[in-house]
Amino acid sequence: MARRVLTVDDSKTIREMVGFTLKNAGFEVFEAEDGVRALSLLAGTSVDLVITDVNMPNMDGVTLVKELRARAPFKSLPILVLTTEGGEDKKAEGRAAGATGWIVKPFAPDKLLQVVNKVCPSH
Amino acid sequence: MADLAPGGDEYAQFRTTFFEECTELLADLEQRLDQMQSNVAQAEELNAVFRAVHSIKAGAGAFKFIRLVEFCHSFEAVLDKLRSGRIAQDDRISAVLVRASDVLAALVEAAQANRTVAEGFGADVAEELQMILNEAGDAIAASPALFAGGQGPNADALKLARRTFQIKFKPHAELFRHANEPLLLVRELKQLGEVVAECDISRLPALPSLDPDDAYLSWTFRVVTDCTRSVVADVFEFVNEDCDLEIEALSESTGGSQATAATAHDRAASTAGASMEPAQAELAESKRPVGGSSIRVDLARIDRLVNMVGELVITQAMLAERISDQSGGQGHQLIQGQEDLALHTRELQECVMAIRMQPVKSVFARMPRMVREIAAKLNKKVRLITSGEQTEVDKTVIEELADPLTHMIRNSVDHGIEDPATRRANGKSEEGTIELSAVHRGGNILIQVTDDGAGIDRGRLLKKAIDRGLIASAANPTDEEIDNLIFAAGLSTAEQVTDVSGRGVGMDVVRRNISDLGGRIQVQSIAGKGTRFTLILPLTLAVLDGMLVAVGKEKYILPLTSILESIRPERNQVRALAGGGEVVSIRGEFIRLIYLYRIFDVPGAITEPWAGLIVLVETDSGAKVGIVVDELIGQQQVVIKSLQTNFDRVAGISGATILGNGKVALILDLDQLFGLTERSAPQANGRIGRESSTPPLVETEAAAPDC
Predict the structure, then answer these.
(1) Model pLDDT for residues B118-140, shown as the tens digit of each residue
(2) Is pLDDT at B321 greater than 80 in this prediction?
(3) Total count of domains within chain B
(4) Which of B20, B47, B55, B280 should we substitute to test contact with A (largest number of A Cβ atoms within 10 Å)?
């Protein structure tokens, strides 16, 4: 069974890039453009991994991580945070909120897959 | 993974998306920065501005637009300080931000066009951004590495001689709270080389007192690998802070028990797994209702859809005609069905047209800034008030609207609004006002630019027009006619040239632009009180409300919006002019007649207006003319087909449409027709010869398949 990933980013470019890379690697990819939509999507869809941007309207990535960790079904869901070069404070914030790991933007496809495989086991 | 080179070139296909997104982000950015000029921005505003620049930077990085990334980096740094309150917003900073957004837009444009940007471009703005940061006691970190591709050392990156590492790994309970998983770490280690694991279960309590969320196990791994220490350490990148970790390089590999490794796997899995619950459970409730969603569609697809629906409308009309011809009063159900089909087709067409509709906001949003800049340059005080930004109009119309509108507003600031001293002297407030509004009226959109300036100086305008020979010196034009002179070619600039509006483009070009869109422009002016320009534009360029008229066996379409009335004159109302041509006298007004049968050389048409009909129309330039036709057939919405894709431009014709019977009807361009007859009036019969290179226009029967 294909691993299922939700990518959360307000930038369509980034969503498409992440989606493209992961689909090519055999993942099933879902998209949401902010934290609020991610939460409502996750209410009805189970995924194996969430990859979220930090800066987003409505609900940012750090809050999304906190919200997910506060809900029992998502306590062990791997969550990767997309940060930018030098975004150490965001990385730390994400970690404190309960993120599993991070990916530094901009990323190459192989780097993305490497990190995804690191935290999201294949079935 | 192997076929994906670390360069990221496989992302090239997302360029289009990226630039589309940039366009939206830049427009949003500009608008928000503009608002920040007059108000101190709220946190949410600043966040949105930051996000826009941040998103552009992220995308730019992926496509290796170096200059763009570097510039975004400084821009973003300032915005970040602003939103976190480490810098306070003031006028200088606001101004720098606006300039930065200009540079950013230029860099995006250059990147999109694959142009290289001049070396020092935007350096001044970048410097100012840097100064703002310096003043905040904070230098920008060196520009980020562009592409993180080869950066993360991966397994096959740095190969060395085989070495053995001993890793002592003791997870904390924290590790599980981040959904990290020791089993995965072990798997990852195994990719680096041979792994021997020893599991320490000494802290594992008896089952009843076991807390599934706690960590009790620890491991010692021995890894034989040709990777460096940093590659090994990288495996634990995400768990560094949630465990005790020691990595020690041993000189030689020593053996170990494979069995324990397996056990370790199982233990790790089960311990960590205890906290994993089925991921269905209670439904997470979203805090806010999800807003209206939208999708982005390639414009070409929509154009195709519009075209197909156009064809459908025509087919439906043909079908309707055949049915009413053939059923002969019977086939009631057939007629009923065809009427339903007509209704649904019409609705479908409206839906499809609505897809192309966009609010004029995107054009209006560019104006406040321009007004501010020009006003500052001219030392005037001008306030722009916009309304009706949400009024929707076809995307093509929007695109074509920006230039004329920019020009009109530029004109209003430059020539309309007086300088503060003059205004004060005339008992007006120092600050002039320009109102920009949009509203739907019938099948049109009405856009008005109203200023409370000096109004048109009719004396000067008239003098200039006479000097240039545009009108006879003996002429005695009405105020309205004088005002309309500002649309005359070759009049608008000269003395008026300033670096603001004298760019060689006059209001005549504006009128032509508007006319090309099938619209009209009107001007009203009151001396000392101000001037109002009104644009009347069709909502769409794909369909036209027309009046079908017959001339001999031919059918023509007149745009419905330009028709004033139709009359059958008495014989004595029609008079010949000495210089050629004829006029009709209606209520004391003489109106020039245009005979379509002469212009288009139609045999068998009614030649006397009193035997046929005169349709009185108003051209875009405000002139009234009477079109002589045989009869009116009826009002009809027609799908516009461009002639220019297949034929040269034909004077007097703006396009064609296909009628229900399959025949082609030409859509008349009244302005051009009027121009033609004016010029050719001295000719014997006012008939316009076609240019010899123009192919025979349209075989009107040809569209009906006769095979």
Answers:
(1) 877 888 888 888 888 888 765 44
(2) no
(3) 5
(4) B55
